[in-house]
Design brief:
The chain is of the alpha+beta class. It has 14 helices and seven strands. Strands 3-4-5-7-6 form a five-stranded mixed beta sheet, with helices on one face. A two-stranded antiparallel ribbon has the order 1-2.
Length: 430
């Protein structure tokens, strides 16, 4: 069966000659001619101009920017390679942080080894590959076209085809029938093999290597961890602002209203002050609850186990906590686990119709495992979707865990029990 993702696989297919692959191979080889000519011309002009202007700063800057041609060459050639590599060639370039300026982005790309490899491929294309492709694909294609047109051409003039001279349409037709199929088979496989070989060369020089894929993955993980850190920093800033600013003002307000309540005589004014005092105390209690949810102090001071026990004590239904964590974990991991437990217990209290709940946590190898199990009615929808365990809360936690390399799984058959399982690496690096 023809492999649509590789030219070599197509060559091995029994349907190769009746497929589009021979024509795709011709298109790939012949399209290299204009691309190769433009590439070598642009590189030569840039080098000459850089040498001429080298006594001044402009020439030095232009010479230093020549590796950036490799980025453009790679883009064009990876796009052109789709003719014989439909799956495409993965880009080897790492993601550039969005905070970089234009100059920093250019410097970053100029120093990448992938840019230099692509520049080398451009030189190879401009000096060697396009003349070779023009010669072989040109000879094969021209001979094939002349063979197909032999009956028509021989009707108007003598036509020399190697040792044969065709004088009339009958001789041209005989030549077409006898030589055409053979030449089509031979030329198709020659052109296909050359295109397949060059596509492998393009993948080797323009594609991502294993270490670059690992580096790109690490860069992606690092950028996502930076977002998590920035989010946690913002949470801590909001918590400090509410705790040290707004909360203190509310405390002062309640104290002032309490003193005013003592000094006022009985009447409508005292009743309104008493009511305002009660509202202020209720707002202060709500604020303290919100501050605890934004950035729980017990989590920072005493760790995940203490924070989970505190949120379990506040739950309206009985919660059994069994956690065995020998050491403190990195702050983002502890925060993620805490908010998973907090969100899960909130969902159980609101939707599960449960009578009890269990929270367990342990270290399995190099991973933290936390499970929340209730004896409710079950039938919860997927995490982040419709159903009792769905919603944006757990969906956001899935995104957070994914940035940390963790997972969140929900098992909730109709009738229960419902079990939410979180796994996360105990380290922030790979």
């Amino acid at each position: 069966m023809e492999r649509p993702d590789a030219a070599w696989g197509a060559l091995a297919s029994r349907r190769y000659l009746v497929s589009a692959w021979p024509w795709r191979s011709y298109a790939y080889l012949l399209s290299s001619v204009p691309v190769g000519v433009l590439t070598i011309a642009a590189l030569l002009v840039s080098v000459v101009v850089s040498i001429v202007l080298s006594p001044i700063v402009v020439g030095v800057l232009l010479m230093a920017s020549i590796p950036l041609y490799g980025v453009l060459i790679g883009i064009v050639e990876r796009w052109r390679a789709r003719l014989v590599v439909p799956a495409g060639i993965a880009s080897p370039h790492a993601a550039i942080p969005s905070t970089y300026s234009r100059r920093q982005r250019q410097t970053f790309r100029r120093r990448e080894r992938a840019s230099m490899r692509a520049l080398g491929y451009g030189l190879l294309l401009g000096v060697f590959l396009w003349p070779l492709n023009a010669l072989i694909a040109g000879i094969c294609g021209t001979t094939l076209l002349l063979t197909l047109g032999a009956p028509v051409i021989a009707a108007y003039d003598q036509m020399g085809m190697g040792p044969w001279v065709l004088d009339n349409p009958r001789e041209g037709f005989i030549f077409l029938v006898s030589f055409g199929p053979v030449w089509f088979v031979v030329s198709s496989y020659v052109v296909g093999a050359l295109a397949a070989a060059e596509s492998e060369l393009a993948k080797a020089l323009l594609g991502a290597r294993e270490e670059e894929l690992r580096r790109n993955l690490a860069e992606l993980r690092r950028s996502r961890l930076d977002l998590v850190d920035a989010f946690e920093t913002e949470r801590a800033r909001i918590e400090r602002h509410l705790h040290d600013g707004v909360q203190q003002r509310l405390v002062g307000l309640t104290m002032t209203l309490g003193l005013a309540e003592l000094d006022l005589p009985e009447g409508e004014g005292r009743r309104l002050v008493v009511k305002a005092h009660g509202e202020a105390e209720a707002a202060l209690a709500d604020l303290r609850e919100a501050v605890r949810g934004i950035h729980p102090r017990v989590l920072v001071d005493h760790g995940l186990e203490a924070a989970v026990r505190e949120v379990a004590d506040r739950s309206p239904l009985p919660v059994t906590v069994r956690m065995s964590l020998p050491n403190r974990l990195p702050a983002p991991i502890e925060a993620a686990a805490y908010f998973v437990v907090s969100e899960a217990l909130g969902n159980v209290a609101k939707h599960a119709a449960a009578t009890r709940c269990e929270v367990e946590g342990w270290i399995a190898g190099d991973r933290l495992v936390v499970t929340i199990t209730d004896d409710g009615i079950g039938g919860a929808g997927p995490v982040g979707g419709a159903g009792s365990a769905g919603g944006t809360g757990l969906a956001g936690l899935v995104t957070r865990l994914d940035a940390l390399g963790g997972t969140l799984e929900l098992t909730s058959p109709p009738g229960g029990p419902t079990r939410l399982r979180m796994e996360c690496p105990c380290r922030l690096d790979d």
